[in-house]
Description:
The complex is a heterodimer of chains A (294) and B (266).
Chain A lengths: L12 H16 L5 E2 L13 H10 L5 E6 L6 H13 L3 E2 L8 E5 L12 E5 L13 H10 L3 H14 L10 E3 L3 E3 L9 H4 L5 E6 L4 E5 L5 E3 L26 E5 L6 E5 L2 H9 L18
Parallel strand pairs in A: 2-3, 2-4, 4-5, 5-8
Antiparallel strand pairs in A: 1-9, 6-7, 6-10, 8-9, 11-12
Helix pairs in contact in A: 1-2
Chain B lengths: L14 E10 L2 E11 L4 E5 L6 H8 L7 E7 L5 E3 L5 H10 L1 E4 L3 H4 L6 H11 L5 H14 L16 H13 L5 E5 L7 H18 L2 E6 L2 H7 L2 E6 L2 E7 H6 L4 H8 L5
Parallel strand pairs in B: 3-8, 3-9, 6-7, 7-8
Antiparallel strand pairs in B: 1-2, 1-4, 4-5, 9-10
Helix pairs in contact in B: 4-5, 4-6, 5-6, 6-7
Protein name (chain B): Phosphonate C-P lyase system protein PhnK
Keywords (chain B): ATP-binding, Lyase, Nucleotide-binding
GO molecular function, one term (chain B): ATP binding
Amino acid sequence: MNAPAYNFAYLDEQTKRMIRRAILKAIAIPGYQVPFASREMPMPYGWGTGGVQVTAAILGPQDVLKVIDQGSDDTTNAISIRKFFGKTAGVATTTSTADATVIQTRHRIPEAPLHAGQVLVYQVPIPEPLRFLEPRETETRRMHALGEYGLMHVKLYEDIARFGHIATSYAYPVKVNARYVMDPSPTPKFDNPKMDKCPALQLFGAGREKRIYAIPPHTHVVSLDFEDHPFTRYRFDAPCALCGAGNSYLDEIVTDDKGGRMFVCSDTDYCEARQMAGHRGSESAAPHEESAHG
Amino acid sequence: MAEPQNPPQDDQPLLVAEHLGKNYGRLIACRDVSFALYSGEVLAVVGESGSGKSTLLQLLSAQLAPSAGRVSYRMRDGVLRDLASLGEAERRFLFRTDWGYVHQDSAQGLRMAVSAGANVGERLMAVGWNHYGRIRDSASSWLERVEIDTARIDDAPRTYSGGMRQRLQIARNLVTEPRLVFMDEPTGGLDVSVQARLLDLMRNLVSELGLAAIVVTHDLAVARLLSHRVMVMKGGRVIETGLTDQVLDDPREPYTQLLVSSILPA
């Protein structure tokens, strides 16, 4: 269970207290980026150092942890973080969204609705939504403080001018609690409406940029848009090839070098649960028939 | 020059500077500058490099805090307020609605990486416009007014020539119909024919819109074409002030005489 060389959940208690203070402040000011003294973690930046620190700070021995990467429980990043906490905290792990109390995620919000008492921890690469338009940190902080968010619409304007519609498809800016504009981390904009009035607590950790922010349960989260170009969700217009779901976010999987492709749920837990319940898609009866495409 | 179509409704000054001074340690950049600017009036500040022109402009536009004296501005509600008493939010709001600032270096005044339309529309979006079609219509009508081909509305300003960039800066500033525009060497670095076209455009816009403007320039020809009044600065002090033709044709101070006589004959 708990390897003797480690404190519970890897981080020392002082560090956890520091991170918890940042988290409490972040919850008190929804959408506001709270600076914190991010630590070196035994993984490279970009692999979820921020998310791991937040998870380590909130994890208790009774918690059940789920880790997803692009919706999937079985990618390298998800497996290694799950094993990391299995080893350093000895907590139970699961792949089931409903059973988990803490879900660390990279780039997705699970399809199954979250319930009260759950915590969703996002790994965030760049927490500042204004960054690519205004490179100065001193200036972006001032803009947040004064609520000057015209620049965010400049970005959306550029999209429409170039592509005819708002082409931003991930990291789509939202306004939290009618005050702070926030980057929801690179989740697809399909997931944006799930953040609104979500009964679970949502925490965002950016390790390299040393920022934590939060959306408390049942908080208003609105995606920015124009009156004549309203926010729309986007998903591939196809059912999942494995479970037949018509409302889940899909990954496009290239199956050969002749243009063959299939669309499957990006949320593996959701897809498997549906298949267990007897739902079938076009490819699920014979999943190894790739040669048939040739 | 055409009479302004919107003559000032009253005789209250728009901007008042009182005994304005700025020093950096023992270096005095600007001292004891006092004047009043009325709406619809164009004031040129001339002088050689290092005479305190740019410092004065920054003091007047509240980008620098003065070491002495104060600047007051008559807000849209008609109340004259000390700029130092405004909160930062109010000051920044003023800066992007009621004021314009045309930089000598267009890269400072424009967002070079976003399209011309977004550059013009930014101020509108900042004051809460939320309708793409209307923002775009407004942007394209302003591009027309500053004589930029509307077919180039989606091009980034870095693909524009120097003269076009300055005209775009002007459009970007005027879109919220400011009452006062600060210009820092607006024609600097442009060739003579482009300068002439820009000056002509600015003169028309200023008179059409009844704008007040403070133009900092070392080019007396710009002062002569654009301004009603001239202030001559030397060593941080205003040494001579008066109507443009009076100062330039009949200079009183030896330094002004030198400035005027040092223009190369055409």
